[in-house]
């Protein structure tokens, strides 16, 4: 799909079971190629990428995984040995305001509790 390649590296795709392969970031899109099964490749054009979500831990020292949320087909999650290099290469093609951090564990728990309390208060008022 790409005519010019900016980054190639080993990666893991978390679509169902973990698939190991290579990612390629180029001028046309993000591509993942499975090492074992050539039919399990993922090609995401830059026009289809809505957000790039990075899971950041220890104040940016460690990024265990990142995801590409598409406009039509959902979210694709990946991890690689050098995630900062991958995100820097992606930054050339995705606007910086479209690259976000994922919620922390405590933020997810806080939202869940707020939703539960709101649901209980609505149920109690009826």
Q: Can you put this structure into words, describing what you see?
A:
This protein is of the alpha+beta class and 126 residues long. The protein has a single domain (5-125), classed as Pleckstrin-homology domain (PH domain)/Phosphotyrosine-binding domain (PTB) (PH-domain like, Roll), CATH 2.30.29. The protein has 2 helices and 8 strands; from the N terminus they run βββββββαβα. It has helices at residues 83-91, 105-125; strands at residues 5-13, 19-26, 29-34, 42-45, 49-57, 62-70, 75-80, 99-101. Strands 4-3-2-1-7-6-5-8 form an 8-stranded mixed β-sheet. The protein is elongated.
Brief description of this entry?
The chain is built from two helices and eight strands. With 126 residues, the chain is of the alpha+beta class.
Blueprint of the fold:
Blueprint: E1 5-13, E2 19-26, E3 29-34, E4 42-45, E5 49-57, E6 62-70, E7 75-80, H1 83-91, E8 99-101, H2 105-125
| Helix content range | 10-25%
Strand fraction: 35-45%
Distance between the ends:
56 Å
> What string, H for helix and E for strand, traces the elements in order?
EEEEEEEHEH
CATH topology: PH-domain like
Q: Number of DSSP strands?
A: 8
Major β-sheet strand ordering: 4-3-2-1-7-6-5-8
Which stretches are low in confidence, meaning pLDDT under 50 for 5 or more residues running? none
> How is the biggest beta sheet arranged?
8 strands, mixed
Choose one word for the global shape: elongated
Radius of gyration in whole Å, from Cα? 17 Å
Number of self-contained structural domains = 1
In terms of quaternary structure, what is this?
Answer: single chain
CATH class term: Mainly Beta
Q: If classified by CATH, what would the architecture be?
A: Roll
The computed structural class is alpha+beta
How many helices? The count is: 2
So, the CATH homologous superfamily?
Pleckstrin-homology domain (PH domain)/Phosphotyrosine-binding domain (PTB)
The overall pLDDT average reads: 90
């Amino acid at each position: 799909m790409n005519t010019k390649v900016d980054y190639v590296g080993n990666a893991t795709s978390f679509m169902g079971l973990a698939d190991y392969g290579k990612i390629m970031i180029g001028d046309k899109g993000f591509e993942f190629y499975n090492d074992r099964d050539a039919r399990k490749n993922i090609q995401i054009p830059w026009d289809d990428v809505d957000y790039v979500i990075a899971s950041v831990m220890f104040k940016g020292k460690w990024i265990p995984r990142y995801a590409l949320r598409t406009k039509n087909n959902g979210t694709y999650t990946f991890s690689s040995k050098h995630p900062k290099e991958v995100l820097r290469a992606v930054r050339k093609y995705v606007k910086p305001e479209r690259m976000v951090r994922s919620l922390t564990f405590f933020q997810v728990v806080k939202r869940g509790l707020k939703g539960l309390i709101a649901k209980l208060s609505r149920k109690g008022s009826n």
